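Handoff note, outgoing to incoming analyst
You'll be picking up this chain. Sequence as last confirmed:
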Amino acid sequence: MSVTDKIIVPLDVPTEAAAIALLDRLPDVTFWKVGLELFVATGPTILKELKKRHKKIFLDLKFHDIPNTVAGACASASEYGVDLMTLHATAGKTALNAATEAIAKSPSPPQLLAITLLTSLNSRDLAFDLKIPLELPEYALQMALLAKDSGINGAVCSPQEVAQLRQVCGKDFVLVCPGVRPNWANTGDQRRVMTPKQALDAGADYLVIGRPITMSDDPVMAWNRIIDEVST
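Most recent structure output, in case you need it:
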């Protein structure tokens, strides 16, 4: 897999027009993420546009509901022909099992990824707000193992947890890391971050890098700079 295929750029914009403008401005990006904001605004229209341009698609809707609803949502979403799709590990084992069974009927099933813990949350949030008594790395690992035992293809995790998850979950478990920021970029609301090269070296398969590229005064230059940094 080439370096460019490992960098996923989010289309975190509010309209189809803004998304297409970003696609036109960054033609060398091969893998795009469509999240809640854009999907709610456009529905599957933007996915059709990406398919028309022969791009890979990470559909990041983070399903989290009762098992029957999660299964139905995953079955419907798998018809779009996307490459990666997310649901929360905290939906529970029954829901995770139902999701894997639901997409198995698709002619081109996506790889399912479980969200371990949002990268906007830190250890204090986990302990004081969510009242979870585990240390953060242990919690992320348990969520990843729950996903793996349920037939899920991989997990979304902070780059700070990726080395442990790679060691325990094995080389075939797909690990996608948001919370990746070059040294020259602002971390924003991401709390558990690493540089792109550090995250790949730690064992990540894919990196989600948004604002350092899309909010840059020169997105093309920012994209090329990141590719150069991780290629050396």
